[in-house]
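Obj: model holo form, ligand = iron/sulfur cluster.
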Amino acid sequence: MKSKIVKIETPGAPRPSPLAPPSSSEPTGIVLNIQRYCTHDGPGTRTVVFLKGCSLRCKWCGNPESIRFKPELSYEPRLCVGKKECGACLKPPFPEGAFYVVDSASDDKVKVNWDLASDVTEEMVALCPPKALSMFGKRMTVNEVLDEVEKDASTYRNTGGGITVSGGECLMQPDFVAALLKGAHERGMNTAIETACNVPWENVAKVLPHLDTMLHDHKLTIPERHKKWTGAGNERILANFKKAYETFPDTTFIARTPLIPGINADEEHIRAVLAFIHPHKNVIDYELLPYHRFGLGKYEHLGVVYELDDYKTPSDELIQKLQAIIDEAFGRTGGAK
Ligand code: SF4
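Output (holo structure tokens):
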């Protein structure tokens, strides 16, 4: 993905806590980051707004910092200058015991007690001079987000792009997402979301009236296997997809599968998804997202163990074979051999 990460910063001090109640009636949400110039997240060139909070626990997740709803601490040991030179996080206002040094003679970089560090705030991490400490996520208003996204309005006009709201699971913040998409339409922008739809139907129904394109994940076919690898069955998800296709015939849907050899990168799953989507003419494509391991470093920064260490990225040969089945189903040239 060709993209540029925008640091979300609000000038001026003091700043309210990221979880403080909003001061106006304008809807707010917890935003992880805003990524510009994305080309694989809906039509044209897009700005993707990643929200925090997810209702699944996919073992291959490449964005572990998006799973919890609350803003949370990130620690990058490489940047820590150590206790002798700094030591700011070993003193108040940081929670007692949240940071410690094991052997200050040979290595005086701090270590984190992740249980005690859950109370670390945005104001505290600002006290770390080299920015070894930072926060994933902050509360933003609809207009703060849209003002940022609108900076690339001319690119959207030239490419047919717009705003894509992603996660985590963006439909866990349905009022915020509905307001974002409605506001985007009012500003003349095309709208899309990326979702797994593991939420109550009411959440989906709030957002869909303001949506041009839904990119939605079909992760596994069999409910027990879906539960084993993502933490939840797929019955509610499939019911939501079907209802969405039927209730919103003018919305465009694109099915997607994160492709992981040994889990779901097989003909059986691809053909099952094709059979599910094919009766619905507003599902215009099915995309494969080959598994990668780019997010592994973030697990360390969050103090979380990555469980999928033995799994490999899919080979080009496998991707081409499965893609050919999809191309054939959509009547494109080539097809399955
Ligand atoms: S405040 Fe930052 S640089 Fe200073 S000791 Fe703590 S983590 Fe290291």
